[in-house]
Amino acid sequence: MTTPDVTFDLSTTPLRAVNEALHAPGLTGEFAIEHPAGGHSVAVGLDAPIKVDVHGHVGYYAAGMNQQAEVEIHGNAGTGVAENMMSGTVVVHGNASQSAGATAHGGLLVVEGDAAARCGISMKGADIVVGGDVGHSSAFMAQAGRLVVRGDAGEGLGDSIYETRIYVRGRVASLGADCVAKEMRAEHREELAGLLKAAGYTDDDLDSYTRYGSARSLYHFTAENKY
Amino acid sequence: MCGIVGLHLRNPELHPRLGELLAGMLCEMEDRGADSAGVAVYGDPDWTPPGQGAVSLLDAADGADELVARVSDALGCPVGARVLEKTLLLTAPVDSESLLATVRSCAPDALVAGFGADLAVLKGVGRPQDLAAAWDLRGARGWQGVGHTRMATESAVVAAGAHPYAVGPEQCLVHNGSFSNHATIRRELRAAGVRFDSENDTEVGARFVAHQLAQGKDVEVALKELCATFDGFYTLLVSNRDSFAVVRDAIACKPAVIAETEDWVAMASEYRALAHLPGVAEARIWEPEPEVIYAWTREGGAVQGADA
Description:
The complex is a heterodimer.
Chain A: E1 6-9, H1 15-22, E2 29-34, E3 50-55, E4 70-74, E5 89-92, E6 108-111, E7 124-130, E8 144-149, E9 165-168, E10 179-182, H2 186-199, E11 210-214
Parallel strand pairs in A: 1-2, 2-3, 3-4, 4-5, 5-6, 6-7, 7-8, 8-9
Antiparallel strand pairs in A: 9-11, 10-11
Chain B: E1 3-9, H1 18-28, E2 36-42, E3 53-58, H2 64-75, E4 80-84, E5 87-92, H3 96-106, E6 111-115, E7 119-125, H4 128-135, E8 144-150, E9 172-179, H5 182-191, H6 201-214, H7 219-229, E10 232-240, E11 243-248, E12 257-260, E13 264-268, E14 284-286, E15 292-297, E16 306-307
Antiparallel strand pairs in B: 1-8, 1-13, 2-7, 2-8, 3-5, 3-6, 4-5, 9-10, 10-11, 11-15, 12-13, 12-14, 15-16
Helix pairs in contact in B: 2-3, 5-6, 6-7
């Protein structure tokens, strides 16, 4: 870790002032945030090629709506970390609470520990790599992007999934509606290897992963309720 | 939203700091619900002298002197009384159920906020920070405390609707969420002779748990029964004199964080309520799994993580 250009201390500086400083036009450089104490909305709405290290546990929506920035959270993250991320990277060196990466359109979210329920709910194009387990209803209604789980997945994985590809190394408690196991073809192995490498996991045996995705049976509605 | 906090102190050296730590937790959760609040404190020797029974009454402070005189006469011994904002805390050298029976006979309409040995239950309408100051919560001591900041959804903003619901001896329940079938269960409990003080959905959960415990079931079995019976969203913290338990519904919609060290076990709706606890940086921190009951007993033998 390099020395940051600016260090903010949330025990003395109001969060609004910190987020305003991080939203300054034309911003570049490296920043550190100390003593987040589980506060909400730390480093949200960033839209600049900056690096932000948050030292401690954060509350809801940390690094939400991120664009371009590279955010590392050295602690646990609360509900909705990297929610609606558009680009950039968010790395959680701990566990994440529910709805990590919800509705995210782009970028990479890495959770080194476990992610709780509804990880990647309604994800729309982001990549999410979880070092440990994910909770129930993860990738619920996921529409695009990739979710990699190096541990186990809880109940109802990929319920009502559209087009997201899910790779799970461990046990899946149960699959949700329309989510099925699929063949790992060469392009999927290549994709998985690339995602793991991007997240810093280079030693995993690709053969230990199973791919899951949409059976696409929910795509077809029956007009006028004629079954 | 509502906010829940609870702190179970294992290290007696921390007992003098219970109120300070609990007040910090409660006030941090104020923006999850600021219409009313309540706390339960176990073991403050000033509020609830050891060896005495205690009864907490709401909205009885105005006629307190007369009520205290009547209860003293009826018991044949002096009754201690302390006004803590809208709560009147009565104590006497008798068991708490005898004291409660006497209070009920002297003041049949008084709203009982809680009763039990070593238990003070304080509730009020208004901002949690103001209530904590009015109670001088920071000065309280003891081995365990729970608290709740309320954003009313299922019933009116009155003291009777504030948590904790402490409807059995030394028992408390606080709840974040809502029960959707509480009216049905309330009717069934009423038919079984259970009395209610409010239209609040949480009271139904508390009466249900108390009803189960009164039948001799332990807290884990009671909470498993609750999970099987109640529909809705809930994170519940259930305490009694010797135990501290947490459970969430099957969807785990409402937040909860548990932290544990050698010195304490704490639970809150959000981590930030725990951030000021001593040694939290070294704590084991996790989110409770859906419908898994996490329980600790005061003897220190953790029976945590039993599957529901």
